[in-house]
Amino acid sequence: MKTSDFATVGDRSAPVPPNLELRQVARIAASTHGLDVRSASALGGEWASNARLDLSDGTSRMFKAVGARDAHHAEQLRARLEWRSSLARTAATVGIPAALPEPCLVGGDVAILEHDDSTLLVVVSEWMPGIPFAEYRPTPLNAASTRREIGRAAAAMVEALSGHPGSQEDIQHEWAFETMPETIRGALGTDAARTRISETDRSCVERLISRFEGLHEVVLAAPHGLTHHDFNDFNLLVDPETGHLTGVVDFDDARLAPLMSEVSIAAAYAMLGADADPLAALSDVVDGASEVRAWSDDEVSAIFAGAAVRLCLNAVVWTVRSEGHNASYGAARMARTWPIVRLLAATGVEDGTEVVHGTSAGRAE
Fold first, then answer.
1. With contact defined as beta carbons under 8 Å apart, do 30 and 105 qualify?
2. Buried b (16+ CB within 10 A) or exposed e, 257-272
3. Is 7 within a domain?
4. Total structural domains in the chain?
5. How far is residue 86's CA from residue 3's CA, in Å, rounded to a whole number?
6. What is this structure's pTM?
7. Is 16 contained in some domain?
8. Alpha-carbon gap, residue 258 to 227, rounded angstroms
9. Where residue 142 sits, what CATH number does that domain have?
10. How far apart are CA 31 and CA 40, in angstroms?
11. In this structure, what CATH number is given to the domain that contains residue 108?
12. Within this chain, do residues 206 and 249 fall inside the same structural domain, yes or no?
């Protein structure tokens, strides 16, 4: 479960960011997984110290460490991390390129150790090939093909997880699909938002939220199940030449949610790379998802409206956090997101849904 200065403040189940130095990461990976680390490179993360490990044998791994407050909290986090690792294994069994965890020296997927008077939990997983979808610069033809493949993967993910045991926790976090309007409005009420977000942009956000809230009953009534819940453009890796999907990483936001939220979230971030025609990008994702699973007209409408609001959430959250420890990541997020939010707010709801309905609804049998 994630927290911030504007959502679920005081939630003591959230991990403690350990803020490890790279030299410490290498030593920890050696002690927990027996890895001979040649070099380590820092990666971004909200609550974890993440790094790429390049090993002496020429292979690479993904390293993640989070901190716990006490023994009870450590056990709570261990169960959560083990469950997330099991989701990746389930996804991989149906051909989704999910990063598999590497067993610890003492067994299991999660190592627990004491470090500098704190308790750390460490997970090491395989390093997936490719580049983040956010960095992909395709031809128009390749872009459409990649977005459809992402849509297929999003639908395949919810199908794969349909029989997987749920978490022992009721997972609610600030990125939860159903509560995006409340989270956004909470963020807009902070001093940081009042200073950094213009009235024009606030108006755009409220317009898009209103469209989504008009479909509240559709969202509640839609089929629910386990979702990855974060098919964002940094969690999806693609081949830089062909655009084929090579990796789906980071199950940290996984939760029980409307199944169509998986497609909506994927479609939201696909629009970031299509400044000229974001609605076509959204349609490509839904096209791909419809090859795997049929979506009702109401669900397609909610996918469109939800994708727009997910981008609002993305823009507002990272604007509020623009001076935090992920300031550079947040700045990049804002630069890519606000222009699409403004464009979508200027688009009549009929225009957007007509694009999606006309190409995607009911294609799968």
1. no
2. bbbbbbbbbbbbbbbb
3. no
4. 2
5. 23
6. 0.90
7. no
8. 8
9. 3.90.1200.10
10. 15
11. 3.30.200.20
12. yes
